[in-house]
Amino acid sequence: MLQATGNNQLSVMKKQPLAIITGGGSGIGLAIATTFVANDIKTIIIGRDEKKLRASQKKLGKLCEIIVCDLTQLHQIPSLIQQIYSTHGHIDILVNNAGINLKKDFADVTDDDFANIMLTNVQSVFTISRETVKKMLLKKKGVILNISSMASQYGIPKVIAYSASKGAIEAMTRAMAVEISPFGIRINCIAPGFIATDMSAKALENDPERKNKVLSRTPIGHLGEPEDIGTTALFLASEAAKYITGIILPVDGGNSIGF
Ligand code: NAP
Predict the structure, then answer these.
(1) 111-113-119-125 Cα dihedral, nearest 10 degrees
(2) CA pair distance 65, 53, nearest whole angstrom
(3) Mutation test residue for ligand 1: of 147, 150, 199, the one with most atoms within 8 Å of CB
(4) CB-based burial label for 174 (10 Å; 0-12, 13-18, 19+)
(5) Which of 19, 69, 110, 231 has the largest CB neighbor count within 10 A?
(6) pLDDT at 21
(7) HEC profile for 50-119?
(8) Which pLDDT tens digit goes with each residue over 2-16?
(9) 124-139 and 77-88 are packed helices; what angle lies between their axes, rounded to 10 degrees?
(10) How far, in Å, CA of 81 to CA of 134, rounded?
């Protein structure tokens, strides 16, 4: 695993860690993968779009592997994790980053819309975490990072299902931490503010009023970069964070405390 060195760098100790990043082919997930690979962590990125994953793998180099999987196909997850564990012999870090958003007026959100967001953003996170924890328990070691959102810090209009899903992620982070941390597995959650990715572009670019509102309550005054989440994930995955579990860490330019 990683540990802090005297010069404040995070260096790899002993065997090379293995990380799985869901949704690692783009945006925040790709930035986390980039930071992990740069710190000598073997990184498996998972997504549905093989072309996107292959393009990202090309950028990331030989420490990156790709697995094409639609995580809403829950029945595939146990064999996916078993396959990774059988091949590598250990899973050290799981980053539950894959997620989808839906911006729609409350009254227009269908039951299927709501269920679809919950399936991707909550249920699949539970299933892949459960299967990974089974493997981590064998080693009494591991780190799980979840990704929530400002939508679970305060009310945001037109994203009802997304808000419910991210609230669930924060509650699950705490529940998992109290139950599993006694066995050597740390579980934490990053709550990104508004980070410049395709997802935030879809939500903000054609809605100047919303974008102005975001920026006006962000003391640092601009959107975050995916790398801001990458470096935070590296810290929380490292031995430098060995006494940290169950936290929700906003990385948001102050958005969650902004006036
Ligand atoms: P993004 O670029 O759209 O990335 C989402 C990723 O999730 C994609 O790589 C996508 O890959 C993957 N994904 C979605 N559904 C999947 C499924 N069923 N199975 C496997 N992979 C799936 O968005 P992002 O902004 O980087 O978001 C990453 C995470 O950060 C999300 O959980 C999001 O809620 C959270 N977040 C983002 C912001 C922001 O401002 N950007 C703020 C707060 C929280 P494929 O298309 O290949 O399936």
Answers:
(1) -130
(2) 9
(3) 199
(4) middle
(5) 19
(6) 99
(7) HHHHHHHHHHHCCCEEEEECCCCCHHHHHHHHHHHHHHHCCCCEEEECCCCCCCCCHHHCCHHHHHHHHH
(8) 554 544 455 444 689
(9) 30
(10) 10
Low pLDDT (below 50) residues in the chain: 1, 4, 6-8, 11-13
Q: What is the pTM of this model?
A: 0.95
Strands (E), the chain: 2-4, 10-12, 18-22, 42-47, 64-68, 93-96, 142-147, 185-192, 248-251
Residue 29 to residues 26, 79, 113, 216, Cα–Cα distance (Å): 6, 22, 24, 26
User: Which residue type occupies 144?
Assistant: I
Contact 64, 56 (CB under 8 A): yes
Strands 2-4, 10-12: parallel, antiparallel or unpaired by DSSP? antiparallel
Centre of ligand 1 to C-alpha 7, Å, is 33
Give the tokens for residue 216.
């006006």
Question: How much is the pLDDT for 106?
Answer: 98
* Active-site residue list: 162
Tally Cβ neighbours within 10 Å of residue 196: 16
Cα 198 to middle of ligand 1, angstroms: 9
Residue type, 111: D
Closest-CA residue to 226 (of 90, 84, 24, 77): 24
Instruction: For residue range 135-145, list pLDDT tens digits in order.
Output: 999 999 999 99
The rounded distance, in Å, linking the Cα atoms of 186 and 178 is: 9
Contact in structure between 159 and 205 (CB atoms under 8 Å): no
Q: How high is the pLDDT of residue 15?
A: 87
